[in-house]
Design a protein that fits this description.
Aldehyde Dehydrogenase, Chain A, domain 2, glutamate-5-semialdehyde dehydrogenase activity (chains A, B), amino-acid biosynthesis (chains A, B), 43% helix, proline biosynthesis (chains A, B), globular, seven-stranded parallel sheet, Aldehyde Dehydrogenase, Chain A, domain 1, alpha/beta, homodimer, G-glutamylP_reductase_CS (chains A, B), cytoplasm (chains A, B)
Chain lengths: 419, 419
């Protein structure tokens, strides 16, 4: 076998060429390929299941944790969701080539913008083989080529799925290299991708925090990433008590392991004595452990004391840090200092407090009177999402088709020259 | 003096705090500060001139090249332009807080986007002290704080200007650290900025290619950069001959040292014999050296032969590479292979050829029947520009106020929770 460096570089170069070749692809052609992928996956579900069983067996033999095994498993419903996802992406409007913001300049030039793909997207991910199809679908629809580097534990599943993607592309006269799976799952293959800024336009890592941190630290290619989800709900002095109870309970308990789950609850001092006891009872019934500041513990004496580390922790578990604050501005400072810029919500009936919170909380999603759990691409109406960005440039929050595109300038003249 | 690492980190941390404090700044307050800066610079022009004379003297003693000395010099007209630039930025609409793209979701949530500053912008630049005021103005107006690291050769000029900026901020109750000049011009201070991703949200380098390359290679902070400007004009089979002559001449000769100057001319084979001789005569009269491919030299036998290196060279000089191509698609492949993704223009009367060029040339600006020289923020109506990005993510082409902002999601609910 050729060396890993050359193999990855050649794969990325082929993807780059496929990206240019796709410049001429019609929307109907891309949609037909997506729908064909759904058909092929359905038809070949037993072959996919067999490949997945092989991965599961090896993973179990290696002693992979149950949570990881769970993510690796392609159940019937996961496969059906993959097909449904493909159909949904096919049904979304094609963003490529959209023009807007045109203005007429005094010299007669018409100057505006056209939405265009980014180019080649490098996806680096772990476990879940369904990411292979989700990423392929979103990249293809948005006119990008992609280089997919899945984890070793999902190798056979990813290969089986990638083979069907290639077939669907070929049958629809699209370049097979538009979706290229790196068939080498060594650490080195990731390293080569991260250094190939000439061939790969953006890297999107999906996986645990250590993977994402390593990729961010090493990449010479721009990265769109999600790190932590330390989300807050702030119960304002002007909160409606029932909305506060409902939202604070839902934001913590509807799922524990998701990045949009609340990890710290902030309560205005004027409402703490009224709201914390019934809320604590709801959490206790659900088995949620509370860790509070001194003022919280004055009201709820039986709970643990929060250490300073708690304000910076993404528990991903039935644990919640609780802090009583003196003012809206203390809440905002706390969120901007300890939050992860993901999603934060205020519960209030005050117009001015809501406006202040929306303007000054520096997070990808800011909410009024809604559960942080709504922060995802489907709930936002994007139709699909490839991740949730906690970065500040290019795209913030849920990343859908638009997040995989950029805008170039279009200048329409009739012979103008510059003096 | 404290060590450089701590000094730069503390300066950036103060800028971060100033960014949060500015969240509450009114547009009128920012505009008043900008107009006050213009006044102060006008009033203190002799002090600025004295500081600049000191820099010029030291630079001359060090034997700086005349071109660099020229950029360093703050003539009366450069200072007047700085003041005029401040007044223009004050007159631009404030992008911060603009909301759009709202949609009503089936559950009653109103979900849209709000335009927000990026945070702290690190500007690293050489020579031109007027960048200090341009950067400060654009960052302030867009609600960002900035950390400015100018070159050692402009130290006294930058200090004089920064002092007046600070005064104008203070007089208008804005945080002085919103515009922070790093008073240490060592290489180390740049290095600390490039590693401070926790304090600086984006780095914008302005200067020679080697500076920009070094910064891109070392930065752990996202970079918005301009590398090369290898711009093309393609004279299509369906070109109007007069427009072709005018545009090709203007794109090369109106200025040689700018990044939007044409460096390679592509001509469709069916028009080469007609257009190249009169065009070559115009270039010859202006002293432009031509370097052609074999087919160009068959028509213009007296010119130099272009080597393969010429297609990848930004001359920034009265030199032009010329290539005859067989087709529009050969022209597009050449541009996507050898261009720098800056600005490329087609001269054509063919609607379909124009559309194909606009869609498939992968550059920040794509033009029809216009000189590449129009690619800049003022010509595009942005009112001002902080640079021209040849990157593909976040912002492409001229970067104005909008390029220094991002969009966060705003979710307006009335108590919604997720099932």
């Amino acid at each position: 076998m050729q060396n890993i460096h050359d193999y990855v570089r050649q794969t990325a170069a082929a993807a780059k060429q496929a990206f240019y070749d796709m410049g001429a692809a019609a929307t109907a052609q891309k949609n037909a390929a997506l729908l064909r992928m759904a058909e092929l996956i359905k038809q070949n579900s037993s072959a996919i299941a067999a490949a997945n069983a092989q991965d599961m067996e090896q993973a179990a033999a290696k002693g992979l944790e149950p949570a990881l095994l769970d993510r690796l498993k392609l159940t019937e419903s996961v496969v059906e969701n993959m097909c449904e996802g493909l159909r949904q992406v096919a049904a979304l409007p094609d963003p490529v080539g959209e023009m807007d913001e045109f203005r007429l300049r005094p010299n007669g030039l018409q100057i505006g913008k056209m939405r265009v793909p980014l180019g080649v997207i490098g996806m680096i991910y772990e476990s879940r083989p369904n990411v292979t199809i989700d990423a392929a679908a979103l990249c293809l629809k948005s006119g990008n080529a992609c280089v997919l580097r899945g984890g070793s534990e999902a190798f056979h599943s990813n290969m089986a799925i990638a083979g069907l993607i290639t077939q669907a592309l070929r049958e629809n006269s699209l370049p097979a290299a538009a979706v290229s799976l790196i068939e080498n799952t060594s650490r080195e293959s990731v390293g080569v991708m991260l250094q190939s800024a000439d061939l790969i336009d953006v890297i999107i890592p999906r996986g645990g925090k250590s993977l994402v941190e390593r990729i961010s630290a090493e990449a010479r290619v721009p990265v769109i990433k999600h790190l932590d989800g330390i989300c807050h709900v702030y119960i304002d002095r002007a909160a409606d008590a029932q909305k506060a109870l409902d939202i604070a309970f839902n934001a913590k308990t509807s799922r524990y392991g998701t990045c949009n789950t609340m990890e710290t609850l902030l309560v205005h001092e004027s409402r703490a004595a009224e709201i914390l006891p019934p809320l604590a009872a709801k959490y206790a019934a659900k088995g949620v452990e509370l860790r509070g500041c001194a003022r919280t513990r004055a009201i709820l004496p039986d709970i643990q004391t929060a250490s300073s580390k708690d304000w910076d922790t993404e528990y991903l578990a039935p644990i919640l840090a609780v802090k009583v604050v003196e003012s809206l501005s203390e809440a905002i400072v706390h969120i901007n200092t300890h939050g992860s810029g993901h999603t934060d919500s205020i519960v209030t009936e005050s117009y001015t407090d809501a406006q202040t919170f929306l303007r000054t909380v520096d997070s990808a999603s800011v909410m009024v009177n809604a559960s942080t759990r709504f922060a995802d691409g489907f709930e936002y109406g994007l139709g699909a999402e490839i991740g949730i960005s906690t970065d500040k440039i290019h795209v913030r929050g849920p990343v859908g088709l638009h997040g995989l595109t950029s805008q170039k300038w279009v200048v329409l003249g009739n012979g103008q020259t510059r003096e």
